[in-house]
Design a protein that fits this description.
43% helix; homodimer; 16 helices; Aldehyde Oxidoreductase, domain 3; alpha/beta; Pyrimidine Nucleoside Phosphorylase, Chain A, domain 2; 13 strands; 4-stranded antiparallel beta sheet; 4-stranded mixed beta sheet; Transferase, Pyrimidine Nucleoside Phosphorylase, Chain A, domain 3
């Protein structure tokens, strides 16, 4: 990006569109003007729509991506947490099925001395959202105003809310436009959207969990790796400590899918139980949070620290505290049966003997959505009680008639289609697959953290 | 394009945008739905803007281009001239500086037995427009309603008006959007825009004059040739007889630039005088009109027929008739001094002895616009009297102090900048350039007229 001095030529959106169309690099100033004019309603949707399509098809340089992220970040309020002592670290996941680590990480990291100012989103389509899960806890308020959010954060070390109107309004406007103009799928735009919102939290470090596989937005590992690299570099250009873990979403994470069910599973992990994959991934991510937050000398040391916090019950205690401070019924932490329960359960049985050789992960997410556990459209409401418990996962042996999965449901009308989808999503063969599904495919930490 | 049966899936613009973004070929139905929904206001500008940018960057197949042209054509009224005996032929030029052939061609072709239902545009930027030239004739009405247009056409064999609101409304809407979203420069979109309007005239055959060179929209000959080929194929797919001539716009056509001045020069040609390049190009284009309109066995025979019509004075007589029928003062045909005259004239003198080795053609057009002869913005009004008379053109010898050009102007304030621009546009060297500027670079007539 050329370091242009402030130009006397007035900004014309059509020139910016033409530049991107012709694969010319935008100046930082041009991007700032485009984003700020659009946010203020000074340039129309149709010009930005044409520009977005040109970005999708022509791409962006790293400098342009960082400039876009920064312009979107500064379109709204950026939290100033400098008055709070301690290093502020967050984790962000690109989303998947049964992806519930935030509810474990925030309390464990806070119990380990970090500050975790977590601003999350809702689920859409086959993926769940942290806010929906939190709201399965009776009384839990994800709509704290910012001063209240800071109060909880100061008191307990972690707080979890939804995006406020003040945070990155440019992203809200751009995302709504991308959604209807087939311009969602661009790593540059995805990067700027995620990073502008996350950096508005006023954090020092960010651990990214970039999902890849059949249940992720990025089905191909190279696409996920590209996005991960882009986000890490963008964060680093803005002075943040960054790492991205590329993790598996070829099957649901853990065994429970659905809002109350996922809260329950997180509590299991915080009790030192829960499924192995979920527990391991939480330890990995938390290890990185401690490392980037200077609370441990290495990732491995951070991992051990997280395991100790869980073993000592301090993670569970921190969850109890946060739930209480955000108006939720903290008794659920000790008695998950107080979480919303579905009226009915029904098992999906294995049609044969053999081994699970694949689970179409996105279909499992869609099945949960169909039960009412997720949203097809933004306006849809959610049933916190419904969902799925997977008894069998990749590589496991099954016998004919044995339950593969239990459907938790309330509406009889919705169960048949969901059942059909789950049946179709399981692939069972005589022989176990030779394929390996590592939980973590790798990590990208750019130049800053190299050798750590 | 796949021959899909009418689909039961409702049309969603976002799917069409995604298809083009991903370089998938649109079905004819998809294009029809996009154009008709947009014309009816059922899909918003921002979706069409994203689609237009995807078209600019991903292109279109010939089948898609034809489908788009046809959908735009049928968005409005298509003249039905079947009640008029004779073959309907028109000429369309992509525009240039001093490009005034229509005022010669329409009367000559009509005098030769063709019907010429000519619907033209106005000038913008450095190029002139036929309507502006016609309006330099006192009283000439280019805004005839369609029944009146047909009456003139039936009576005199030619009629010349501006685009009515009923003709190709999709193009009006799309063009306005392209103008502000940097999506003008796509041969596919240019082809559909031109051809949809021209074919709405209800013609049987069309001669295209595709300009190339420094004063044309397509500076590069390969771009002009590609557009020409696209338009010829599109017209042929719709059952029209087509030819495109690739002609030179590296210097202005003829010696006069400006509205009344150009009318005057056309009258000169119809009197058997006028500059050689203009006369030759008119004969070439008219030869093709007669050939495609089956009024001559060959282009050469058509050319001779045109020359005879001019020599006999029948072309001039036909112009007189058309001007009268459209409310204009027909005396100008015999006394061009009755055309608007500028109050002042000023010569641009040659700074040295030598030969004209280049004329920056676009700058000459801009100079005429600056005098008031053209429009910078659509809303600008025009001064019919102003313009330029070029005494020296490419290859001609000049001596120091000899007039290169005479500026016809009314506003003193505008003349200095125009003079500067003209001075800069002339390149004069000791030796004549070895470069050749053929008037016609070639012609494209597709498969149908091959060997003719």
């Amino acid at each position: 990006m050329s370091q242009s001095s402030p130009s006397l030529v007035p900004f014309r959106a059509v020139d910016a569109i033409r530049n991107k169309r012709d694969a010319k690099e935008h100046t930082r100033q041009e991007i700032e003007q485009l984003v700020s004019s659009y946010t203020r309603g000074q340039i129309p949707d149709y010009q930005v729509a044409a520009w977005l399509m040109a970005v999708v098809l022509k791409g962006m340089t790293r400098a342009e991506t960082a400039a876009l992220t920064e312009a979107m970040l500064h379109s709204g309020e950026v939290l100033d947490l400098s008055s709070l002592p301690g290093i502020k670290v967050d984790k962000h996941s690109t989303g998947g099925v049964g992806d519930k680590t935030s509810l474990v990480l925030a309390p464990v990291a806070a119990a380990g001395g970090l500050l975790v100012p977590m601003i999350s989103g809702r689920g859409l389509g086959h993926t769940g959202g942290t806010l929906d899960k939190l709201e399965a806890i009776p009384g839990f308020n994800v709509n704290l105003v910012l001063p209240e959010f800071l109060r909880v954060l100061r008191k307990c070390g972690c707080a979890m809310i939804g995006q406020t109107a003040e945070i990155a309004p440019a992203d809200k406007k751009l995302y709504a436009l991308r959604d209807v103009t087939a311009t969602v799928e661009s790593p540059y735009l995805i990067c700027a959207s995620i990073m502008s919102k996350k950096l508005a939290e006023g954090i020092d470090a960010l651990v990214l969990d970039v999902k890849t596989g059949s249940g992720a937005f990025m089905k191909k590992q190279e696409d996920a790796a590209f996005l991960a690299e882009l986000m890490v570099e963008t964060g680093q250009r803005m002075g943040k400590k960054m790492v991205a873990l590329l993790t598996d979403m070829d099957q649901p994470l853990g065994r429970k899918v659905g809002n109350a069910l996922e809260v329950e599973e997180c509590i299991e992990v915080l009790r030192g139980q829960g499924p192995d994959d979920l527990r391991q991934l939480c330890l990995d991510l938390c290890g990185w949070m401690f490392k980037l937050g200077a609370a441990s000398a290495s990732v491995e040391e951070g991992r051990q620290r997280a395991a100790e916090i869980i073993a000592s019950g301090r993670g569970l205690e921190k969850l109890r505290e946060m739930v209480r401070l955000q108006g939720g019924d903290a008794r659920v932490v000790d008695d998950p049966a107080l979480l919303p329960q579905s009226r009915h359960k029904s098992d999906v049985l294995s049609p044969r003997d053999g081994f699970v050789t694949a689970i179409q992960c996105e279909q499992v997410g869609v099945a949960s959505m169909m039960l009412g556990g997720g949203r097809e459209k933004k306006e849809d409401s959610i049933d916190p009680a419904v969902g799925l418990v997977l008894h069998k996962k990749f590589g496991e042996r099954v016998t004919r008639g044995e339950p593969l999965c239990t459907i938790h449901y309330n509406a009889e009308a919705r169960v048949a289609a969901a059942r059909q989808m789950i049946e179709a999503s399981y692939q069972i063969a005589d022989q176990a697959s030779a394929a390996v599904h590592p939980l973590v495919h790798g990590f990208i930490c750019g130049t800053e953290n190299e050798g750590s």
